[in-house]
Amino acid sequence: MRAHPAGPLHGSITPPTAAGAPPAELGVLDPHVWPRSATRVDGELHLAGRAVTDLVRAHGTPLFVLDEADFRGRAADFATAFADPELGADVHYASKAFLCGQVARWIAEDGLHLDACSGNELALALAAGFPAERIALHGNNKSLVELQLAVDSGIGHVVLDSFDEIDRLAPLAAARVAAGGDPVSVLIRATVGIEAHTHEFIATAHEDQKFGFSLATGDALTAAVRVIREPALHLAGLHSHIGSQIFDTAGFEAAAHRVVGLLGQIHQATGELLGELNLGGGFGIAYLADDDPVSPTDVATRLRTVVAAECAALGLPVPRLAVEPGRAIAGPGTVTLYEIGTIKPVRLGAGGGPGTPAVRNYVSVDGGMSDNIRTALYDADYTCVLANRVSDAPPALCRVVGKHCESGDVLVRDLWLPSDVAPGDLLAVAATGAYCWSMASNYNYLLKPPVVAVRDGVATEIVRRQTLSDVFALDAVLADAPAPSPAPDQPAPEHAAGARS
Ligand code: LLP
């Protein structure tokens, strides 16, 4: 077992090595890590032209603040980097990173495609008016109902993940064709056997896992042949996704090499030349100043070069490329604001020297693993700053923790904060736009925070704060019981979705 169920730190106090030596200056906003608009004005953090104290006064804490120009700018960077005047290329936003109606509309307006990985993500995108033909549906266990929605709404591609799914989709597609509709366009998801250099739980293209058709066993080729023989299905191309939060392009290049090899095998076996190659997402972002992500332009150049070379070697025409960045679009532009509630100094066994202080402060904030599970789940690293002011107090070793009844409820494992941080101060955690709100839970009946998008000084609540009434409504006994409003752990006032400040 990797960690005790109560968290990796249960029962022992770990040495403060991960924090390194204290930096020369605290509270610096490294442009690598913070939203493009982040700046300090008179010491206070401003995002897209708004002071954090102002946002918190209007919307409460915990609060996800999304810099709209950052989000859309990163989407545009991918679209520009992959644009290919001859062949075209599609950038699919991997909506699992963070999806709501407003995000679906931005992605639609900005001309990108959208990757949905459940029927409900698909339904949300359609409800927001996202053009169906620009949506691809993923998933290793799509239900009949999900597939029917995909077929009826006329989405761009269903990404086939298993033989069972081919059996399930074929009759639905045949019914559409019999009714005068088009065949259903599909991709085959190939598992290419690459060990991505990332956390084991988020690497997806090694053999011993649930996704896709194995290339090594020949399943991917068998699936392709079967689909090609199915008149109501149109095999448009191949798909491969090797994992997430990857910095090294070698894994993508190796995957491209193998998947182009599969294009060649399919051509040999059936005479079919498939026109599309979707190389998935997984492009890493900087959570810490030392992280060194590859730019969209470099990723595009490398992928294009390797695909062109592999195709030339096999005498195949170069297919149209597609990619599916999620984190790299949604992650960096959002921060989470929390209010500090309590601070508990804990004596460390060893310590006293530089970089090994004798005390660690447990700084508790008003959210936690229910709004960011990534530290507890993946040992993810985050950084944060004192947001409402700067301080020249000396650095203190801190661990930022949530308010859940669990010792593994850690947000930022080790960092230096000014020693005078106090209850009532605001902390901003960087790069929380991907897989935080989207993986949020109601553990301990904490309520999901709102997401406020800020652009040119105007803040719009694109997802409102969940209320206790929302949660009571699901409960057989409490559905009609009056819920205290605001909930005991939530600030007033509450906003309707769409409210501006
Ligand atoms: N395409 C496919 C088929 C995927 O499975 C994923 C992510 C993506 C694209 C987007 O990957 P991205 O560009 O966002 O790395 N919850 C984990 C990440 C799980 C990723 C699942 N699939 C985390 O918090 O790190």
Provide structural commentary:
The protein is 26% helix and 22% strand. It is α/β, with parallel strands linked by helices and 501 residues long. Strands 4, 14, 15, 16, 17, 18, 19, 20 and 21 form a nine-stranded mixed beta sheet that branches. It has an eight-stranded parallel β-barrel with strand order 5-6-7-8-9-11-12-13, surrounded by seven helices. It has a three-stranded antiparallel beta sheet with strand order 1-2-3. Strand 1 and strand 2 (44-47) form a beta hairpin. The longest helix is centred in the middle third of the chain and has 21 residues, at 250-270. The two termini are 47 Å apart. Bound molecules: ligand LLP. Ligand LLP is lined by residues 94, 96-97, 115, 138, 202, 204, 241, 244-245, 280-283, 324-328, 374, 378, 434-435.
Secondary structure: elements and pairs:
Blueprint: E1 39-41, E2 44-47, E3 50-51, H1 52-59, E4 63-67, H2 68-82, E5 89-94, H3 101-109, E6 113-116, H4 119-127, E7 135-137, H5 144-153, E8 157-160, H6 163-178, E9 184-191, E10 213-214, H7 219-228, E11 233-239, H8 250-270, E12 276-278, H9 296-314, E13 320-323, H10 327-330, E14 334-347, E15 359-365, H11 374-378, E16 384-386, E17 395-401, E18 410-418, E19 426-429, E20 451-455, E21 458-463, H12 468-472
Parallel strand pairs: 4-20, 5-6, 5-13, 6-7, 7-8, 8-9, 9-10, 9-11, 11-12, 12-13, 15-17
Antiparallel strand pairs: 1-2, 2-3, 4-14, 14-15, 14-19, 16-19, 17-18, 20-21
